[in-house]
């Protein structure tokens, strides 16, 4: 450590040269980042989807256009308006948006370690000291005394310090925070996609309930007409009292079912209100029976799922961040170099503070290393490796769950489409049977129990068909979500402002 009360040109030149050499050495060693380089964890990817039904196709180049508003494929203006409200007011999305802003700030915080820190300080102190005085003898006797001395100290200094990134600790930390920022961006996209899918599914469930409500209202009307028919036959003496009671019971049961359907509809409407950030008390959606068919959803190869699902991107980026933490832990084994310098003015007289003789400066490097820590660094490194292995397992499990999700929804779409065809035939048959039995009852060839049975069968068939139609639309939304919606991993670049995206499958990632 060099110091001087007054500046000396020779000392300054030597110090500047030493500092320059230290900076050059630090720059050459900064690329020496210890720890393992990151590679995307390997995972099994099937060549094709097993449950792909006939008539479906892989996405063509034209299908790769921006599909951020994926719900537009349903061509529902009401759904479009609700999605706009969700994006602006959903509190779950707002929560993840705040988490992303925090992750972005942490990247800036980590990058600050690349640069030196500068500090300015000024002080003024006044101190006193009591001094003893020698005793004296005279004609009157002896006496002792003391005096006090007051001194002032004024100081003005500028301090600078910098720790070169010799072993890549800072670069690894920045890489970890950048990966965490990308993970937070994917988390935000996943939260938005999940809430959008939940809204769409709830909306189609609501429309399905509206269709069932229409069916129930029509059934109540039909049962009421059947009751009037039975009452007329009873008045003519060709039907018994029991027939009237049975017809009345059937009609009243249908009324109760129509009222009960309103509970489920109200609950779905309230759920939509919460998703779009509005109080349930002031939110309502006009009834409109579901009459839509799910559109054909072009798919990409299964390998593209790794780039299209934000939850997979989140898990992969967390694994990358955990890998960088291994390098941070390993860097603790190596010594740290700190370059510091300070200079300023110091004097006991304020008016002479900014004069040449009051100047002082100090500059010099400091090398520090830990010789014994009772296994602390080894334990920290092993903990970092275990954390990485944990994130790798999470990533692989997320990939497996994603393929399961796609296959589940593909199977659901395929089976429901076939089931609806059969159910429509069943509805037609039940309606024909009801007409025949009703005519036979009017002719007096069968009793009213046959009419009740035919009515119940026809109503159950139509209700089942309406339920299947709603399930098919809900499953269609689930398939869009399982395929990643309109999201793509390249959007991480646009959201984080980074120059490089997470690596593609099987490729070596760019250095963090």
TrEMBL record:
PROSITE patterns: PROKAR_LIPOPROTEIN. Residues 1-33 form the signal peptide. Belongs to the outer membrane factor (OMF) (TC 1.B.17) family. GO terms for molecular function: efflux transmembrane transporter activity. This is Efflux transporter outer membrane subunit. SUPFAM superfamilies: Outer membrane efflux proteins (OEP) (SSF56954). The keyword Membrane applies. It comes from Trinickia fusca.
């Amino acid at each position: 450590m060099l110091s001087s009360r007054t500046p000396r040109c020779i000392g300054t030149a030597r110090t500047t040269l030493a500092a320059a050499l230290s900076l050059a050495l630090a720059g050459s060693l900064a690329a020496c980042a210890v720890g393992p380089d990151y590679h995307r964890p390997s995972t099994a990817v099937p060549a094709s989807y097993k449950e792909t039904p006939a008539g479906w196709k892989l996405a063509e180049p034209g299908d790769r256009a921006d599909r951020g508003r994926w719900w537009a494929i349903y061509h529902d203006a009401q759904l479009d308006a609700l999605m706009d409200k969700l994006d602006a007011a959903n509190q779950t999305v707002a929560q993840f948006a705040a988490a992303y802003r925090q992750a972005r700030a942490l990247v800036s915080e980590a990058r600050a370690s690349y640069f030196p820190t500068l500090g300015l300080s000024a002080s003024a102190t006044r101190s006193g000291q009591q001094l003893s005085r020698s005793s004296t003898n005279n004609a009157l006797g002896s006496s002792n005394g003391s005096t006090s001395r007051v001194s002032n100290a004024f100081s003005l200094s500028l301090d600078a310090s910098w720790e070169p990134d010799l072993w890549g600790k800072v670069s690894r930390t920045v890489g970890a925070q950048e990966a965490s920022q990308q993970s937070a961006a994917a988390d935000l996209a996943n939260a938005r996609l999940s809430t959008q899918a939940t809204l769409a599914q709830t909306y189609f469930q609501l429309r399905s309930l509206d269709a069932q409500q229409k069916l129930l209202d029509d059934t109540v009307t039909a049962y009421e007409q059947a009751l009037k028919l039975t009452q007329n036959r009873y008045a003519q003496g060709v039907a018994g009292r029991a027939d009237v009671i049975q017809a009345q019971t059937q009609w009243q049961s249908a009324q109760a079912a129509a009222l009960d359907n309103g509970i489920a509809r109200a609950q779905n409407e309230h759920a939509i209100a919460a998703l779009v950030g509005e109080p349930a008390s002031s939110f309502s959606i006009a009834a409109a029976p579901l009459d839509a068919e799910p559109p054909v959803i072009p798919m990409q190869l299964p390998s593209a799922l790794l780039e299209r699902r934000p939850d997979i991107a989140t898990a992969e980026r967390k694994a990358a961040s955990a890998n960088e933490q291994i390098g941070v832990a390993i860097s603790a084994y190596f010594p740290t170099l700190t370059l510091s310098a300070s200079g300023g003015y110091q004097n006991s007289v304020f008016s002479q503070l900014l004069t040449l003789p009051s100047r002082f400066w100090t500059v010099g490097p400091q090398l520090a290393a830990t010789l014994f820590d009772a296994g602390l660094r080894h334990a920290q490194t092993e903990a970092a490796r275990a954390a990485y292995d944990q994130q790798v397992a999470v990533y692989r499990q997320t990939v497996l769950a994603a393929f399961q999700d796609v296959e589940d929804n593909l199977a659901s779409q395929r089976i429901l489409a076939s089931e609806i065809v059969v159910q429509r035939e069943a509805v037609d048959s039940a309606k024909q049977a009801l007409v025949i039995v009703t005519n036979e009852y009017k002719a007096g060839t069968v009793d009213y129990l046959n009419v009740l049975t035919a009515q119940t069968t026809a109503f159950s068939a139509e209700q089942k068909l309406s339920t299947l139609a709603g399930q098919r639309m809900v499953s269609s939304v689930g398939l869009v979500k399982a395929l990643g919606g309109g999201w793509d991993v390249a959007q991480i670049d646009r959201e984080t402002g980074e120059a490089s995206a997470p690596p593609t499958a099987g490729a070596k990632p760019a250095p963090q």
